[in-house]
Amino acid sequence: MPTVRLLVGTAKGGFIFRSNESRSKWRREGPMFGGWEMMHAKGSPVDPQRIYASTWTDWHGQVMHRSDDGGASWETVSNEFAYVGDVGTHQWYDGTPHPWEFKRVWHLEPSPTERDTVYAGVEDAALFVSHDAGESWKELDGLRTHSTGRDWAPGAGGMCLHTILIDPGNPDRMYVAISAAGAFRTDDRGATWQVATGGLRSEYLPDPEATVGHCVHNLAMHPSRPDTVFMQKHWDVCRSDDAGDTWREVSDDLPTDFGFPVAVHAHEPETIYVVPIKSDSEHYPPDGALRVFRSRTGGGNWEALTQGLPQEGCYQNVLRDAMSVDSLDRCGLYFGTTGGSVFASSDEGDSWSPVAEHLPRVLSVEVQVLP
Amino acid sequence: MTTIRVVLPPHVKMLADVHGEIEVDVPGKGPSINDVLDVLEDRYPPVRGTIRHHRRGERRPLMRFFACGEDLSYESLDTVLPNRVLEGSEALLIVGAIAGG
Q: Using a CB-CB distance cutoff of 8 angstroms, which residues of chain B are in contact with residue A36?
C-alpha cells in the first residue's frame, strides 16, 4: 500500500508528516533543524528516499542537508554557492546598481532523471546545479549574466529565484521564475536563457509590458504538456501554450487574482488551483475565508473549494512554495499557511482536513508518494 | 599546541552536535580567532561558512566574538587571543548578535 510523506518547511525548522493512502491520519516527525528557517525540502523523483533541504538564518547563512533514508537521518552537504566570475550588478530597490550577493537557497529541484543532480534557486537570483548530490555546487551563470540581468530588481522578499520547472521528457528544457525579474526558459540545460514574459502586463511597472520586471510568484506545469505553463503573477493568473513565449490572463471570475502558489492536478493537465489573496498590501484571504479555487478548464470558470477550510476569521497567507499535489488517484492536494496550519485534500480539493495546526509560519510543502 | 575553551552559539552547536562548552587544541602558543575557527571547521565540517564567510574569511555580520568581558568582534581575526583565553581561565564566546527583537 502506498504511503504519503509531506515535507513541511517552516520559519523555525522542518517537519515530516506521514500517512497511508487514505491520507486521513498523519504522524508528525520533527521539528528538524529547530531554530533554522527551512526554506524548502524536496525528494528526488529518481530515488524518493533521497531528500534535500535548505536551511538558513540571518546569523549563520545557508546550510544544506541531504537525507538518503527518507528523512530519518541527515548529513550536511556543501553550502558554498559562489557566483562565476565578475558578479556585476543588478538594480537595487532605489534604482541604483547593487552587486550580486548570495544570501540563501529558496528552492531545490532534484532532477527527474539523474539521481545525483539537483538544482538550487537562490537569492540574489541565480541558478546552481550539483551533480554530486549536493557535495558541490556550480552556478549556471548564463542566467545571471543574461543581457537583462542588470535591470533585475528585488521584490519585497528579496531578489530570489524561487521556481524551477524541469521538463521530465526533455531535461534540456527548464523554466525558472524570479521576483521581481520575470520568467525565463532554457532549451540547453541552463547554458543560455530566453525571457519568457511575452504578453504579460503589470500595471505596477512604468512600462506595463516591459520585458523584465514582472513579479512572477509561481509557475506550474503538467509533465505531459511541457509547452503549457501556468503562472500566478503578483496580480493575474496567466497561462502560456507556447513555452512561455506568450501569455494570456485566465483570472476571469476569481474574487482577486493576487496570490502566490499555482498548482496543476496530477492527472488532469487542464485542472489548476490557486489561493486568491486579497491584495498585495493585505496578505490574507478576502472576507477572512480561506478558499482554494479550482479551474477545470485551464483557467476561467473558477470554483471555490471551501469544505473543511476556515470560512471566517482566517487572515493567513499561503506562500508560493507551500502548495503541492500528489500522484494518487484521486489526486491529493496540500498547502500550508503563514499561521502554521497545513491542510490536506484526498479528493482533488473537494474537501479538506487539517494535517497540522500551530506550526511556525509555513514556507514550503512538498508531497511524496512512496510505493 | 594550545587548548582553547569555546562556547558556540545554539544553532552551530546543533550543526556540530555538541553540547555546552567545548575545548579545541589549536597549533602554536598564541593562536588567533582564525586559528580556532580553522580547527573548529576541520573538526566539525557543517560549521563551515556559518561563522565566517567561506572565501573572504570575514566574520558574518551578525556573529560576535567575546572574551574576558571584551568585544573582540572588530579586531582582526588574526589577532592573538587574550592571555586568559590562552591560559584556559576564560572561554572564547562565539555569539549570535541580539537582533530581530
A: 11, 14
Tell the CATH topology of B2-96. Ubiquitin-like (UB roll) (3.10.20)
Query: pLDDT tens digits, residue range B7-61?
Result: 999 999 999 999 999 999 999 999 999 999 999 999 999 999 999 998 889 999 9
Interface of B with A (CB under 8 A): 9-12, 14-15, 45-46, 48-51, 54-55, 60, 62-63, 96-97, 99-100
C-alpha distances out from residue A224 to A189, A267, A271, Å: 19, 9, 13
For residue A7, the number of C-alpha atoms closer than 13 Å in the C-beta half-sphere is 25
Q: Could you read off the pLDDT of A89-102 as tens digits, one per residue?
A: 999 988 899 999 99
Domain boundary assignment for chain A: 36-324+342-355
Residue type, A172: D
Residues in chain A: 371
Chain B contact present for A33, CB below 8 A: yes
Which of B12, B15, B58 to substitute to test the interface with A, most A CBs within 10 Å? B15
Gap between the Cα atoms of A276 and A286, Å rounded? 8
Contact B51 A34 (CB under 8 A): no
Cα A338 to Cα A93, A308, A364: the distances in Å are 25, 18, 10
Residues of A in contact with B11 (CB under 8 A): 35-36, 57, 59-60
- Distance (Å, whole) CA A239 – CA A63: 35
Instruction: Give the residue from chain B lying closest to A61, CA to CA.
Output: B50
Domain boundaries along the sequence of chain B: 2-96
Q: Could you tell me what percent of chain A has a pLDDT over 70?
A: 100
Please report which confidence band the pLDDT of residue B99 belongs to, taking 50, 70 and 90 as the band edges.
confident
pLDDT at A156: 86
Of residues B10, B15, B54, nearest to A80 (C-beta)? B54
B63: nearest CA partner in chain A: A59
CATH topology of domain A36-324+342-355: Methylamine Dehydrogenase; Chain H (2.130.10)
- pLDDT tens figures, A130-169: 999 999 999 999 999 999 999 999 988 899 999 999 999 9
What is the phi/psi pair of residue A96, to 5°? -85, 155
Cis peptide before A180 (omega within 30 of 0): yes
Residue of B nearest to A65 (CA): B46
